[in-house]
Amino acid sequence: MAAASALIDAHGRAIQYLRISVTDRCDLRCRYCMSEDMRFLPRSELLSLDELALIADRFIARGVRKIRLTGGEPLVRSDTIELVRRVGRHLGQGLDEVTLTTNGTRLAEHAAALRDAGVRRVNVSLDSRDPEVFRHVTRHGDVVKVLAGIAAAQDAGLAVKLNMVALKGLNEGEVAPMLAWAVERGMDLTLIETMPLGQIDEDRVDRFLPLGGVLADLRDRFDLVPDTHRTGGPARYWRVAGSDTRLGLITPLTANFCDGCNRVRLATDGKLYMCLGHDEGVDLKAALRSSESLALDAAIDDSLRRKPARHDFRIAAGAAPATRRHMSVTGG
Fold first, then answer.
1. Fewer beta carbons within 10 angstroms: which end of the chain, N or C?
2. Is residue 202 predicted with pLDDT exceeding 80?
3. Of 259 and 279, the one with more pLDDT
């Protein structure tokens, strides 16, 4: 394809980070993420491996420096490792990093292959290390598999960051022990406020835990030093003094972070979403399959013009979710 301009949205923000959901399927059913009887897209509607790689190539050519593969659970898709290899060929040639967010259930099987393909760090979603709490949150998951996956990732030389959604009445008592365990294992931990994406079977108000209070409690237990570290995402960081562990907070509801947004999200059906908190998307699959050679760039440019200034997240009793689509469609 011909050269094209850098990715600058209507608010002057440079887009350098692309998150790609390779599948909406997942082998868990986390209560805050999806309903128990989720209906997934037919496989015929998903982007092919070649299409995913072509879109990634184009974004890299236009200035994207970091790509994260997500889901659903990306490792349930059989060709995800091959996609990592294709994207990883650009490392050092326009691309700084290719990473993966996973629930960890299949990480033990794939950790070495991910490292060989160019991944150097992974985010693992882990809301509890207690087997019963984990099973409740995920509806049927086995935390032993996730812990084995984390161990395998570290053994393979991958840096691990834990992502923990803070859930009132479920895991709030585990936050401090999780941070202590992260320090012990040399991992980072990011805490996330639950987000109103898609209709679920529970009222999110009942589980919403503002992170300001959580941080205050942690500062009573740990020596936390503000850290200017940034990974390209929305987290703000503290370092646990005397360790290499960083604590990150993602606070979409209590402390908006949209001014510095540098990312867009490609869903597995080919829709490009400019904001996690809005339903409007641009169909890159249709553009890619068009006979017009410049259709993909035109669609990407259209998306930049549409990127909103900020999300509209709010959690209130009886309030509709911010988007019709679930988190698994566009990934974490």
1. N
2. no
3. 279
